[in-house]
Amino acid sequence: MNPFPRDDKPLAARLLEGFGRFWWDFLVGDTPEITLSVVGIVGVTALLRDVVHANVAAYVALVALSVGTLALSAARGSRRG
Amino acid sequence: MIGAVNGSTTAIVLVGAVFLAAAVEMVEALTIVLAVGHTRGWRTALEGTGVAVVALAALVAVLGPALVHVPLSVLRLVVGVVLLIFGLQWLRKAVLRSAGIKAKHDEDAIYAEMTARLALTGERPPRDRVAFVVAFKGVFLEGLEIVVAVVTLGTSAHRLGLAAATAAVAVVVVAASGALVARQLSSVPENAMKMAVGVMLVSYGTFWTGEGLRVHWPGGDVMIAGLVVVYALATAVVVRLLASGAREPVGAPR
């Protein structure tokens, strides 16, 4: 059995599919919690910077929430083994 | 004076991040090319590699200048978010490997698996499509990650030329090392490199996300070095916590 089977779709469809799959794997992959957290972090930082006008709180939150995301995602990964 | 310090700090972190990211991806691409070359012949392996390199060069030539026309704040926010996500993914993987929860990336095992799969495809035709596609895909996909790192880091720091040159040097250094040691790529300290790249990508990502959101960082660009220190310490703490809670180290490859 050939472990590298031929794909009979048209070239344009394969390229488009490959391009979409690359970005999905690149930005989401098996860690959707990181992608969702970063979207949330951007929202919280923008809120603190532009609505509350708290610059220091904005950059502290940006860093602290990023560290928290790493810790929580790694802990989730350790539970999955 | 302060501007010069800011500029050189950005350049040092940029060169370090791009060099290590390109080197790690190049090790992975080289493992695939060497497996194809040894099992199916060097001509097709090098043809696949060459076409992938040309395709990647064309991508950089198109993407780089096009990004200059995007408003700077939008570019910085998008680049920052992409780098933050990408960096956290890398760092998470490196943390899990350092804590002994996930098996380390074993280039020898990947090489053995790839050569076994290629051997299954049987006789070599005059035009070896399988070998060409495997070499092309390996180089193109790993190279695409180098391109993303070069384009995002280079354009946001207004140093696309420096980033591209650094990546080129890393690719040449790894290729030359690979040619010298034939296939003993497992001796490359890939996890330590991955962790260093992860820390730098997350630091850059945090900085540019903040810049894109009009956050004023204390110390300007020098803060990138401060963020590297903060994330390196945080990573060390997370590894320690997970390692102490880990049941037993994983020994199987991948």
SS-based class of chain A: mainly alpha
**With helices defined by DSSP (H or I, 4 residues minimum), what is the helix count of chain B?**
8
- The span between the termini of chain A is 32 Å
Q: Quickly count the helices of chain A.
A: 3
Overall shape of chain B: globular
Q: Which range best describes the helical content of chain B: under 10%, 10-25%, 25-40%, 40-55%, 55-70% or over 70%?
A: over 70%
Strand percentage of chain B lies at: under 5%
The main pleated sheet of chain B reads as: none
> How is the quaternary structure best described?
heterodimer
Estimate percent helicity of chain A. over 70%
The most extensive interface, with participating residues per chain, is: A-B, 35 and 46 residues
Count of distinct strands of chain B: 0
* Strand tally of chain A: 0
From the alpha-carbon coordinates, what is the Rg of chain A to the nearest angstrom? Answer: 19 Å
Uncertain parts of chain A: none
In short:
The complex is a heterodimer of chains A (81) and B (254). By secondary structure, chain A is mainly alpha-helical.
Characterise the protein shown here.
The complex is a heterodimer of chains A (81) and B (254). Chain A is mostly helical and 81 residues long. Chain A has a domain at 30-80. Helices cover 78% and strands 0% of the residues of chain A. Chain A is built from 3 helices and no strands. In chain A, helix 2 (32-51) packs antiparallel against helix 3 (55-80). The radius of gyration of chain A is 19 Å and the shape is elongated. With 254 residues, chain B is mainly alpha-helical. Chain B has one domain. Chain B is 80% helix and 0% strand. Chain B has 8 helices and no strands. Chain B has helices at 2-40, 42-67, 72-98, 107-120, 129-156, 160-181, 190-212, 223-245. In chain B, helix 1 (2-40) packs parallel to helix 4 (107-120) and helix 3 crosses helix 5. In chain B, 51% of the residues are buried. Chains A and B meet through helix 1, helix 2 and helix 3 of A and helix 3, helix 5, helix 7 and helix 8 of B.
